[in-house]
Amino acid sequence: MQKEIKELREEVNMVDKELVAVLKKRFLVVKKMIEVKDKEKVNVEDLDREKEILSKFDNKCIKEIYGVMFKHAKNRSL
């Protein structure tokens, strides 16, 4: 059993590395978008876009994670 747990933990670690890499890429794109919106004097907050993104998911945890990302984007703390 310990071997199986160790193998699964290693798999989770690999997935975490992939996830972090993708999140970093997303944050860079969002930062660029914020720069463009600032330059064009467009509000960073777009509730319709947030609803559109959240509507793709039925998992509460994923929706909460996106909510945190939206909050940090609005606060420019990515």
Description of the molecule:
- There is one protein chain.
- By secondary structure, the chain is mainly α.
- The chain has three helices and no strands.
- It has helices at 2-39, 47-54, 60-74.
- The protein is elongated and about 55 Å long.
- 1% of the residues are buried.
- Radius of gyration (CA) equals 17 Å
Estimate the helix proportion, in percent: over 70%
**Main sheet makeup:** none
Q: How large is the count of helical segments?
A: 3
Q: Total strand count, please?
A: 0
What is the N-to-C succession of helices and strands?
Answer: HHH
Beta fraction: under 5%
Gross morphology is elongated
Cα(first) to Cα(last) distance is: 40 Å
Low-confidence segments, given as residue ranges, are: none
Average pLDDT, to the nearest integer?
96
Question: Structural class of the helices, strands and pairings?
Answer: mainly alpha
TL;DR?
The protein has 78 residues and is mainly alpha-helical. It has helices at 2-39, 47-54, 60-74. 1% of the residues are buried.
List keywords for this structure.
single chain; 78 residues; mainly alpha; elongated
List the helices and strands and how they pair.
Layout lengths: L1 H38 L7 H8 L5 H15 L4
